[in-house]
Amino acid sequence: MGYSWQFHVISQYWPVFLRGAMVTLQITLIAAAIGLVIGVPLGVAREAQSKWIRLPATIYVELFRATPALIQIVWIYYCLPIFTGIQFEAKTTVIIALGAHTGAYIAEIVRAGINAVDKGQLMAARAIGMSYRLALRRIILPQAAQKMIPPLINEFANLMKLSTLASTIAVYELLQESNNLIASTYRPLEIYTFLAVVFFAVTFPWIWLSRRLEMRLQKSS
Amino acid sequence: MSRIDKTQAGPAAVNDMLTLSGLKKAYGKLDVLRNIDLTVQAGEVIAIIGPSGSGKSTLLKCINFLEPYDSGSVIFNGKLVGYAQSKPVSGKRKLAPDHVINHLRTQMGMVFQSFNLFPHMTILENIIEGPTRVLGIAKAEAIAYAEQLLAQVGLSDKRDVKPTRLSGGQQQRAAIARALAMRPQLMLFDEPTSALDPELVGEVLTTIRDLVKQGMTMIIVTHEMHFAREVATRVIFMADGEIIEQGSPEHVFVKPTQSRTQEFLSRVLTTHTAL
After folding, report:
1. Chain B residues close to A142, C-beta within 8 Å
2. CA-closest candidate to residue A45, choices A132, A156, A124, A119
3. pTM value?
4. How many CA atoms does the CB half-sphere of A77 hold within 13 Å?
5. Out of B99, B106, B114, closest to residue A120 by CB
6. pLDDT tens column, A65-86
7. Closest partner residue to A123 among B112, B120, B129, by Cβ?
């Protein structure tokens, strides 16, 4: 191939990437926090004894898992204002949408974690007179949490990649900054390649950590 | 204390700790408990024997309502267990409020086949969890009693160890201590030695034997026939969700009248002696 790579654009424009990376990080962290706040109670609700608690939780989870995150972002950005008159700023929109989206997945992780705890544990807790809530808090969730950590880390890595969807509504995160830069430097190959490397570099350690923890957990049980 | 005095007026047999009447339970089309009537008085040691799948464990779990029964009643200390109404109203019965069921459970200790100790807690924490969190007993007091119980079951040196570090027999003894920590009036044992290696069965039976000596009221579902014969005041033989025969150990083990009891005993007792 006759293409001559010119990676100096990267070093030349590094503040642009840094700026984008900060926004990517901001979106990921806040959305992850929202996801936990939504997902943990939702996952517990999915396992509740009352059908009236279970049902809304199930609807939420299935709704958000069965629709693409991109549609959720676009919907909140363009459709929600028409119905409600509430218009969020682009970055806020992305954070809310991805938080709600990842919340559904976290709910599933929490539910799976609760389910993975031996049924005898709940029985033993109930047998000493614990209420379901107390048993959940003292006996089930502490054991489930351990099982939830690897998939949660994995979900966090996913979220980081999903944050690139923000570029579709012109939020200046890594991808959008890069697109902009390409428009002025005409070096898409270098910039996209670099971007792929950056995402790999920040995502892979999490995936690796998740797998390590999972293996350690398997060994200990 | 005198035994029941049937001539006395008032609610039938006030000395009965536990009365099951017409107890039925089905899983779908399978009838697990067909029509169980059973009365247990304070101080009795009841051994329930029978082939697997006969409903013994389910019966035990219906007593503390870990398994809801479908019809009939379980009366513990004069109180209906699990339901708010003694008879179904238009086919359904309202469940008792959760705190009522929980409170009744604190008075019945249960020991499981698979121990079910809480793996994220030390043995001591396992034992004081119920007293402190459910009964609201001060921690220092709970610990003092837990230490006494640990000494009783021979596990004083294991108090700060996590359950996975213990042998099966030790785990089961710790589980017995955990149940006793609630100061129950009735102990339910669900095949307490079935998950144990043969050489560990003895230590658990010794612990249970000590409880018998203390006069604890117990219902023990077991496959240990010699143990049942030795400690039980009454032996109940169950098959297909029914009580087929019951009586003193001599009656059930030596001269059972029902053919199914005889068949079962000849089967298990020969395999036992063959070991």
Report:
1. 120
2. A132
3. 0.84
4. 22
5. B114
6. 999 999 999 999 999 999 999 9
7. B112
